[in-house]
Structures are given as structure tokens and as C-alpha cells.
């Protein structure tokens, strides 16, 4: 491992810019959330907080980068529900996906939307499901790789529909959205932080939101239960992490800074426009994030084993 930072360095932390790795492409949902958080944290910390996109392999390349970084508080990871699913989806990883990070705090829980290219021949979710059953693997489902939220939602959707689709993997749903708008792929299930504005603009069609209640930001879109797929509920939790072994004082400083960011009114307003909200202050803590992360690993393991779709 790395030598521990001297206490004197911790007292003045941070003395230079901090990098937050987003394990997906720029312009997508994780990137959007992270840039808002990074900007506000930078104001609190008095140093720039820079976002670096390290996409690929369903978020595992970016996570590996941070797991292997020096645990000094200058390399962080903002990742989502993939932290809960990856340990079950991947049999071989270059890093410890269960224990290789020190959580800093939860950030947000983002609803998802089942969307399609705008000219898909279906008027509602039931018609979409019938189309998928009829056309089978001729419909292309875009996702951000095994371990992505869009992959997990696709698994749940295919299980509910009872028919497989052909999946097309991207480095993030930002680039996937470009192809969905262009009509070169047919379907996606993606977070409202990426889809809301394109749904409102009519660039894509939305069939359902994956929450128990309708969203104030998309009031005309039915819930999955209303649209005929009861039980298909999923929200995408995000948390901020440091590499394992980061000094506790640094982790606590970062947690306070995350709480500052999540209190920011402009951030909260932007989150609301995008269908989500910051977590409560007492969840933006190392203990809350660790408990949630570990519970989520246990929650998804049987679901993934039942679906039987693994990465190599
Ligand atoms: C992204 O930022 O591209 C997404 O979070 C991808 C996903 O998990 O579906």
C-alpha cells in the first residue's frame, strides 16, 4: 500500500486540485450529477475539483483507476448503483469491488425512464411490450455496458417482458442518447438526469418512469405499475468514494464538503429540474454510504444470479 499522509498535510488539505473520476462518458447522467457536485465542493474546499471521464467496461475501468490511486484525497470516484451490482456481475476484476474504497457519502437517488426512438410504432408501454415480444431480437437496446444502471434496468425489463432484446453497449448513455435520438438504436432505460430534457423536447418517446409515484418533472409519464409492469421499480443511487486507506480526517473533510454541495440551492434546483433530489444531509456521510453500498450488494446478488447474465 501507500505510505500514510503526514498529519500536517491533512491539517491543510486540500493544497491542490482534486480529481473526481466519472466511470462513464462525458455528457451522460453520472457526468451531469458529478459536475454539479464538483463545482459546489470546489467552492467549499477552496481548490478546483476536476471531473475526469474514464468510461468503459460498465464503469469498472474508472472504478479500478481510483481503487489503485494513492489514498491521499486527491483522486475520488463518483459512482452509482453499479457499485452494488458489479461484485455479482463480474467474476474477475483488477480491484476489490466490495471493499476497495472508503465511502464519503451518498449523493442522490435518480429515477429511470423507459424510452424509445421517437418514431417507434407503439403508443404506450403495453404496445411496446407487444412489439418487443413480436420482433424479439430485432429491436436494439442501448446500454452503458455490464454494470451500468441502463444494463440493470434492461435486465429487469427483459425479465418482466419475458423476451430478450439485442443489446448495444456504449461507454455511457450520453453517447447512447445521441444514437437513440438519431434512430440508430430503438430502446433504452436511462436516468432522468439524462433523459428529461430530451423527453420534453420530443426527441425521444418516454413510456414509463421506474418509480412508485409519478415525477413532478415529467407529470404526464405513467409509472411502470400504472403502465402495466407492476414491481418494475428501480432508482439509481450515487455515492462519492476515496481509495481504501484514505486518512479519516480527509474522508470526513470531504463528507462535510459534499454536505455543503448538497445544501446548495442552485444544485437542488437543477437536480429537481432533472427529476431527482440531493439526499438528506445525514446520508452524505461515510457510515450511511458504506451501509447502503453493502446492503445493495446483498440486494442485487440473488437478482443477478437468477438472471444469469454475467461479464467475463
Ligand atoms: C452514464 O453516466 O453514462 C450512466 O450512468 C450509464 C448507466 O449507468 O446507464
UniProtKB/TrEMBL annotation:
UniProt entry keywords in alphabetical sequence: Signal
Keyword Signal in record: yes
Pfam families (alphabetical): TctC
Top-rank lineage group of the source organism: Bacteria
The keyword Lipid biosynthesis is assigned to this record: no
Gene3D superfamilies according to UniProt: Bordetella uptake gene, domain 1, Periplasmic binding protein-like II
Family: Belongs to the UPF0065 (bug) family.
InterPro entries the UniProt entry points to: BUG, Bug_dom1
Organism: Teichococcus aerophilus
Protein name: Tripartite tricarboxylate transporter substrate binding protein BugD
Residue ranges crossing the lipid bilayer per the database entry: none
Amino acid at each position: 500500500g501507500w505510505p500514510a499522509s503526514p498529519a500536517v498535510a491533512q491539517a491543510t488539505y486540500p493544497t491542490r486540485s482534486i480529481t473526481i473520476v466519472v466511470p462513464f462518458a462525458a455528457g451522460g447522467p453520472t457526468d451531469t450529477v458529478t459536475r454539479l457536485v464538483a463545482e459546489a465542493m470546489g467552492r467549499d474546499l477552496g481548490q478546483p475539483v476536476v471531473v475526469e471521464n474514464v468510461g468503459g467496461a460498465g464503469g469498472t475501468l474508472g472504478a479500478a483507476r481510483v481503487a489503485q490511486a494513492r489514498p491521499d484525497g486527491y483522486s475520488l470516484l463518483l459512482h452509482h448503483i453499479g457499485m452494488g451490482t458489479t461484485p455479482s456481475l463480474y467474476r474477475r476484476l483488477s480491484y476489490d469491488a466490495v471493499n476497495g474504497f472508503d465511502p464519503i457519502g451518498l449523493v442522490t437517488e435518480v429515477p429511470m425512464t423507459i424510452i424509445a426512438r421517437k418514431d417507434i410504432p407503439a403508443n404506450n408501454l403495453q404496445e411496446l411490450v407487444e412489439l418487443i415480444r413480436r420482433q424479439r431480437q430485432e429491436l436494439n437496446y442501448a446500454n452503458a455496458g455490464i454494470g451500468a444502471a441502463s444494463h440493470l434496468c434492461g435486465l429487469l425489463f427483459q425479465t418482466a417482458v419475458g423476451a430478450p432484446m439485442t443489446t448495444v453497449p456504449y461507454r455511457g448513455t450520453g453517447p447512447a442518447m445521441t444514437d437513440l435520438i438519431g434512430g440508430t438504436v430503438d430502446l433504452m432505460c436511462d436516468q432522468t438526469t439524462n433523459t428529461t430534457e430530451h423527453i420534453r423536447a420530443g426527441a425521444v418517446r418516454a413510456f414509463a418512469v421506474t418509480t412508485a409515484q409519478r415525477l413532478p418533472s415529467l407529470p404526464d409519464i405513467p409509472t411502470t405499475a400504472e403502465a402495466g409492469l407492476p414491481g418494475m421499480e428501480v432508482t439509481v443511487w450515487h455515492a462519492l468514494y476515496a481509495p481504501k486507506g484514505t486518512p479519516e480526517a480527509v474522508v470526513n473533510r470531504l463528507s462535510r464538503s459534499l454536505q455543503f454541495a448538497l445544501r446548495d440551492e442552485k444544485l437542488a434546483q437543477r437536480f429537481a429540474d432533472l427529476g431527482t433530489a440531493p439526499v438528506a444531509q445525514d446520508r452524505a456521510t461515510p457510515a450511511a454510504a458504506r451501509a447502503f453500498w453493502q446492503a445493495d450488494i446483498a440486494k442485487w446478488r440473488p437478482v443477478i444470479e437468477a438472471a444469469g447474465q454475467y461479464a467475463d
